[in-house]
Design brief:
With about 210 residues, the protein is α+β, with helices and mostly antiparallel strands. The chain has 2 domains: about 55 residues, 2,3-Dihydroxybiphenyl 1,2-Dioxygenase, domain 1, CATH 3.10.180; about 120 residues, 2,3-Dihydroxybiphenyl 1,2-Dioxygenase, domain 1 (Roll), CATH 3.10.180. The protein has 6 helices and 9 strands, in the order H-E-H-E-E-E-E-H-E-E-E-H-E-H-H.
């Protein structure tokens, strides 16, 4: 047995007090009075498939090898949230490439699901959707890939001026540029300069600090 000294005991205590970061975000759980509508939305939006459903009131769904990534709980007493309600602001899902993001945009559009608005925030380009209960869901691509330093540069600017939350995007003109062969770097340069702002949907009121 290893002999413990006062110094080693202190070191163990300090180590025990250090936070251990979780490996990943595992799943989203939502309660709803619109169970069937929400299930249909997320089956289309995220491509989830059912793992377990209990009497059409509780459901667990996944889009990968995890046992579930989405849980839905029916509660007829649920009331609609309003913009001033406390709680989740939005949830974001990242795609590996702008190609994937644009293909998802096109697929959802064919299914009649359109983003409420889209933005280039600097570090990432994002499409914002709302589910039947009004929860805001973000689909994004990281504009700088693995180069986290460049993303942090934008956040340092945001800290000094919260109004610099990004530039609005018209996803149709952004899509057209992508279809013409523009790279993610080129798309970001154009969008952050306001090149895709014409015809962009307005940001939902109260979501971001006013410019």
């Amino acid at each position: 047995m290893r002999e413990q000294t006062p110094a080693s005991i202190v070191q163990q205590h300090e180590s025990a007090e250090q936070p251990i970061a979780p490996a990943n975000l595992h799943h989203l759980g939502l309660k709803t009075a619109r169970f069937k509508e929400m299930r249909a939305f997320y089956q289309t939006f995220l491509g989830v498939r059912p793992v377990l459903e209990i009497e059409g009131r509780v459901g667990f769904y996944t889009f990968d090898l995890a046992h579930h990534r989405l849980a839905l709980f029916e509660d007829p007493s649920c009331t609609q949230t309003v913009p001033t309600s406390a709680g989740m602001h939005h949830l974001a899902f990242i795609h590996d490439s702008v190609d994937d993001l644009m293909r998802v945009y096109q697929r959802l559009k064919r299914q009649g699901i359109f983003p409420r608005f889209a933005m280039d925030h600097g570090p990432n380009t994002s499409l914002y959707y709302q589910d039947p209960d009004g929860n805001l869901m973000e689909l994004l691509v990281d504009n700088f890939g693995a180069d986290a330093g460049k993303g942090l540069e934008f956040f340092s600017q945001f800290q000094s001026n919260p109004a610099l939350h990004g530039k609005p995007i018209n996803p149709e003109t952004y899509l057209a540029a992508w279809q013409q062969g523009a790279t993610l770097a080129e798309l970001h340069e154009r969008s952050f300069a306001g090149g895709f702002a014409e015809g962009a949907a307005p940001i939902l009121q109260g979501l971001f600090p006013k410019q």
